[in-house]
């Protein structure tokens, strides 16, 4: 599995950010999956006037690029459905869209005042790899990740003052014997992205292209015999994108 993690120096104009997304993906060919940051078109906090629908310009762009390049693309944005707003992480592969709504909204940043929390853990199977989708503050709640995924995808807007969260991401990789991919906002006060393997080894950068040794990881996971933990009150949903 070849993964490209792309940090974005997100601007205040969604159209500018969509152009940047397209430029960055086209400039780094050769991966199976591209992972973009949280609130990729607005940054955090996301103004409600920039909310989009599931047929809006950003979803259309991701589907266009996915079909053009035969790749999957992942990233979150502010989505409006009726009178509700969600921080929604999309996993797009051509015409298929899996999505996860952030469970743990960031109360210190007042995210919970305007957005509706999700209630489902979301898994995606793609090219024989099992992904768990998470957003930013979710990393602080390890019980959500105890589910034997191959790769945990975390999209974030972590500042340099919250870099301790990268330690938590590394812990999630080690305790679950899986890989963790963190696509984080870059520029200004933001700290770029990370890829962490199941032993805690990590690579950092604004653009990371890496190939995950799935067979090696699965052999080690079988030796540890990790149990799947069910979370009370949280439904598990799996999307098959193949």
UniProtKB/TrEMBL annotation:
Q: Which residues cross the membrane?
A: none
Specify the species: Hexamita inflata
Q: Which domain of life is it from?
A: Eukaryota
For this protein, the record's Pfam families field holds: CN_hydrolase (PF00795)
InterPro entries from the UniProt entry = C-N_Hydrolase (IPR003010), C-N_Hydrolase_sf (IPR036526), Omega-amidase_YafV (IPR052737)
> Is the Magnesium keyword given for this protein?
no
Q: What is this protein called?
A: Omega-amidase
Coiled-coil regions, chain positions? 207-234
Annotated CN hydrolase domain ranges read 1-239
Which keywords are on file for this protein? Answer: Coiled coil
Q: Which GO terms describe its molecular function?
A: 2-oxoglutaramate amidase activity; omega-amidase activity
Q: PANTHER family recorded for this chain?
A: OMEGA-AMIDASE YAFV
């Amino acid at each position: 599995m070849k993964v490209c993690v792309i940090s974005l120096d997100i601007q205040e104009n969604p159209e500018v950010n969509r152009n940047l997304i397209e430029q960055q993906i086209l400039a780094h060919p050769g991966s199976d999956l591209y992972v973009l940051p949280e609130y990729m078109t607005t940054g955090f906090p996301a103004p409600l006037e920039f909310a989009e629908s599931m047929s809006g310009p950003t979803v259309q762009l991701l589907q266009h690029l996915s079909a053009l390049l035969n790749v999957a693309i992942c990233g979150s944005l502010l989505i409006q459905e009726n009178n509700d707003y969600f921080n929604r992480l999309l996993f797009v592969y051509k015409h298929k869209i899996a999505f996860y709504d952030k469970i743990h909204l960031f109360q210190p940043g007042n995210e919970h005042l305007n957005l509706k929390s999700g209630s489902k853990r979301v898994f995606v199977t793609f090219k024989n790899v099992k992904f768990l989708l998470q957003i930013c503050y979710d990393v602080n709640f390890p019980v959500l990740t105890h589910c034997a995924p191959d790769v945990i995808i975390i999209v974030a807007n972590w500042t340099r003052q919250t870099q301790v969260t990268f330690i938590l991401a590394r812990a999630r990789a080690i305790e679950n014997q899986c890989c963790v991919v963190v696509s984080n906002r870059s520029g200004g006060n933001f700290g770029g992205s990370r890829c962490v393997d199941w032993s805690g080894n990590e690579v950092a950068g604004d653009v990371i292209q890496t190939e995950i040794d799935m067979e090696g990881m699965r052999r080690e996971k079988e030796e540890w015999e990790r149990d799947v933990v069910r979370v009370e009150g949280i439904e598990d949903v799996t999307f098959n994108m193949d």
